[in-house]
Amino acid sequence: MKPLIVLLGSFILCHVILYWINGSTNYQLAGRVSMAIMLLFTALGHFMFVNGMARMIPDNIPYKVLIVQATGIIEIAFAIALLLPKYSYIAGILLIIFFLLILPANIKASMDGLNYQTGLLDGKGLSYLWFRVPLQMLFIIWVYFSAVKDIL
């Protein structure tokens, strides 16, 4: 829920600022800036809740902590690339793929009832999927319309 609030709040703020500065707005730029802000926000979790997030990764995959930290760095790189016109298109394509690749970890965490912040199995459980899966699809659509579609 917090990433959605950050995404929508920063989009509205960016839209207002762009309108105030230019007398008009650029929805795609506001979309990329707000997605970048959200990615920086979610990247923090990869460093603050490393052990809990590592439990989202299937048991047969080694180097879980390293993977969690690497994906945090990847999110920061995507945030930067979305703001650079030369790289925003490829960043958008790769970010969509990234969102699809991390969805199984979110599904596993929900099925296990994992609270990724504490690492305990006292999370929201399967009911969280009713929110998380549509949220992930929103992120994909958001990136498509703010970073990919204008180039195609």
Present the secondary structure layout:
Layout: H1 2-22, H2 27-48, H3 50-54, H4 64-82, H5 85-112, H6 129-148
Main β-sheet description: none
Q: Level of helix content?
A: over 70%
What fraction strand?
under 5%
- SSE string, helices as H and strands as E: HHHHHH
CA-based shape: elongated
Which parts are unreliable, with pLDDT below 50 for 5 consecutive residues or more? Answer: none
* N- and C-termini, Cα separation: 31 Å
Task: Work out the radius of gyration.
Answer: 16 Å
How large is the count of helical segments? 6
Helix/strand/pairing category: mainly alpha
Q: Got a strand count?
A: 0
Mean pLDDT across every amino acid position: 92
Task: Report what the structure shows.
With 152 residues, the chain is mainly α. Helices cover 76% and strands 0% of the residues. The two termini are 31 Å apart. Helix 1 (2-22) packs antiparallel against helix 2 (27-48) and helix 2 crosses helix 6. The radius of gyration is 16 Å and the shape is elongated. It is built from six helices and no strands. The chain has helices spanning 2-22, 27-48, 50-54, 64-82, 85-112, 129-148. The longest helix has 28 residues, at 85-112.
What characteristics describe this protein?
152 residues, mainly alpha, 76% helix, elongated
